[in-house]
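Record 1 of the preview.
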Amino acid sequence: MATRNGSAQWNGNLKDGSGKVTVGDGAWTGDYSFASRFEEGEGTNPEELIAAAHAACFSMALSGQLTEAGHAPNSVKTTALVQLRNVDGKPTIDEITLQTEGDVPGIDQATFEQQAAEAKAGCPVSRALAGVNTIEVDAKLAG
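->
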């Protein structure tokens, strides 16, 4: 399997500095700062990037899980909510909620929820984030 990359550069001190983050070899570049991470400033932050990666990985994993079970989806849309909290006085990603909606013909809600739970367990990003205290899935069928 391929090795993927991302990079970041930070300039200045923590509070007043700023940075630029790049996904891959320039597929996307964005600014980040103390304000964009810990306040409501403009730009992105590592938690948003983790959220996007987790949502993308989970959507693909759920699509694969559903297809394997004989329920190929028309679409799977996921939003990941990453909660940054102080734990023992340190900023920590403590909780992630995956809100997913699937357009999946011929499946009931209970089966969709079961497939979503299995996809969460198998998603490489979910497994990489195993140190997060809570990762929940809120799975709903479109319709």
